[in-house]
Amino acid sequence: MMTKKLKYIYIAIYIIVPVIMYFFLQWYLQKEIFSTVLYTDGTLIIEESSLDKEKNKEKHGSVIKEYPSFEEDGYIFDNEDHLPYWQKDKDWIKAIEIGHRIQPTDMSFWFNDLYYVESIDVSKVDTSQVKSMAYLFKEAGCFIDDTFVIKGLDSWNTSNVTDMQWMFRAAGSDAENFKLEGGLNHWDTSKVRVMVFMFYFAGDKAKNWYIGDLSEWSTASIIAANNMFSNYSNNPNIDDRCSKWMDKFINASIVNAASENLN
Questions:
Q1: Residue spans of alpha helices (H) in the chain
Q2: HSE-CB of 202 using CA atoms within 13 angstroms
Q3: Collapsing DSSP states into helix, strand and coil, what is residue 147?
Q4: Which tens digits make up the pLDDT trace of 244-261?
Q5: Which uninterrupted H or E stretch holds 180?
Q6: Which residues share a beta bridge with 49?
Q7: 35 vs 57, 77, 131, 151, CA distance in Å?
Q8: pLDDT tens across 20-38, in order?
Q9: Helix then strand then coil, % of the chain, to nearest 5
Q10: Cα–Cα nearest to 230, from 193, 192, 183, 197
Q11: Which residue spans traverse the membrane (predicted)?
């Protein structure tokens, strides 16, 4: 005859434990696991949730590559020892999206040399803590003939950025349409020290060219701005204020550098 103690043990082993395991399994299957995913249609989704993956497979095709998530890695790259994970597959990438909001501190080289990318949507990037955007979009989409567009830049908080050198250098340089959607009008550049080659040859051949109005950008901290823009005189479609903006920053950089005894 089963004692009361054995009866409770039996209930625990054969009833309670399976129920707990069932609910744990259900929780685990619903748990969000993040990664960066490249699909067969060339869409790279940074920080994509596992819960969104099946839906995105219907839209973008099967997964061909997965990389460590931003949450796991932090994505601090350089051009020598730690390249972006997707660099080795750069010729596949046609579009970039951010799946879930991320807050980096350094965005250097993220989309550097992604020659065939046509569209980049960075509206879900919280840039309030970013200090460097150097080489961020350098030569991105430079082999595109039709349209090169970056979305979401108009919502960026750049108040802590100190380095924007080569940021858009030659991005979309062959594209007929070059657009930084929403414009960069409101960017806070008060802490930016370096802007050399920032827009050099960006959208160089475009018939439709738009980056917004930079006339209100702060020059408070700039010490280097040479070749911020290239000579766009051969393309009448480029905003003719570029040379004025560049002169403003170069002149300010000379004054600021002298005041810091950097000349």
A1: 4-11, 17-30, 50-60, 70-73, 242-259
A2: 28
A3: strand
A4: 999 999 999 999 999 998
A5: strand 177-180
A6: 34
A7: 14, 17, 24, 22
A8: 665 555 544 455 789 999 9
A9: 25, 15, 55
A10: 197
A11: 7-29
